[in-house]
């Protein structure tokens, strides 16, 4: 299992939350100045300001120009949950950027190279996907299988090896993203329309359906709230 890199601003934001908690600060209480906080945490102003922007976006603090930094939300469960979700949302959106590039190329190649045997494999996969969906069962793993079959149909071992090296991050979309197994159920129909275009060797059509799928994912991630 790979250790996920933690950005400095995330560490600083965690320390700021701990400071609020340990000092039992309430809504409306004022935090130390930027200068004092940089001294306390031993970080530069840019890292601190990024952490402050992150916490303000998470509605934990509010920054009033000329007045200072104030606590906005001291509900421990809510704000720790918000921070966790905001960090994961940023991570998923960054991964999605890479998915668009890698998977988009795989879909383009698959639409050109897919074999009759591979078409049958993906059809069987989609039949199982439909069965699980109709029975209100988890579709995470069959969804992952579907996308991996498309990479296989691209018939490019280098592309597959890049996916394998990226798999820990890629799989985040299938293992309870944001703690919600069925979060991306809205993308379900695009799997069928995208496959129909791939099977028909319609490159433009397949890429168009993939764009719809990834745009739906992006909207879901951006608007998701605890």
TrEMBL record:
Q: Which domain of life is it from?
A: Bacteria
Annotated Pfam families: FCD (PF07729), GntR (PF00392)
Which residue ranges does the record assign to the HTH gntR-type domain? 6-74
Gene3D superfamilies, alphabetized: GntR ligand-binding domain-like (1.20.120.530), Winged helix-like DNA-binding domain superfamily/Winged helix DNA-binding domain (1.10.10.10)
Query: InterPro entries in the record, alphabetically?
Result: GntR_C, TF_FadR/GntR_C, Tscrpt_reg_HTH_GntR, WH-like_DNA-bd_sf, WH_DNA-bd_sf
GO function term, MF aspect, one: DNA-binding transcription factor activity
Q: Does the keyword Cell membrane apply?
A: no
Query: Per the UniProt record, which residue ranges are transmembrane?
Result: none
Listed A to Z, the keywords are: DNA-binding, Transcription, Transcription regulation
Q: What is this protein called?
A: FadR family transcriptional regulator
This chain's source organism reads: Cohnella candidum
């Amino acid at each position: 299992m790979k250790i996920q890199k933690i950005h400095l601003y995330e560490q600083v934001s965690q320390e700021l939350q701990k400071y609020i908690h340990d000092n039992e600060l309430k809504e409306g209480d004022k935090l130390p100045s930027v200068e004092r906080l940089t001294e306390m945490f031993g970080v530069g102003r840019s890292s601190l300001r990024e952490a402050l922007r992150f916490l303000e976006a998470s509605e934990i603090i509010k920054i009033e120009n000329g007045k200072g930094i104030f606590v906005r939300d001291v509900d421990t469960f809510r704000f720790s949950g918000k921070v966790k979700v905001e960090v994961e949302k940023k991570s998923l959106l960054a991964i999605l950027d890479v998915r668009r590039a890698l998977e988009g190329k795989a879909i383009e190649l698959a639409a050109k190279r897919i074999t009759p045997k591979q078409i049958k494999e993906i059809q069987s996969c989609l039949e199982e996907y439909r069965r699980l969906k109709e029975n209100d069962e988890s579709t995470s793993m069959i969804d992952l299988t579907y996308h991996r079959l498309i990479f296989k149909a691209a018939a490019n071992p280098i592309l597959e090896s890049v996916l394998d090296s990226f798999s820990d991050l890629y799989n985040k979309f299938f293992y309870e993203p944001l703690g919600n197994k069925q979060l991306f159920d809205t993308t379900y129909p695009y799997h069928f329309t995208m496959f129909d275009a791939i099977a028909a060797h319609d490159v433009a059509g397949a890429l168009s359906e993939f764009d719809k799928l990834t745009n739906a994912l992006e909207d879901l991630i951006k608007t998701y709230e605890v």
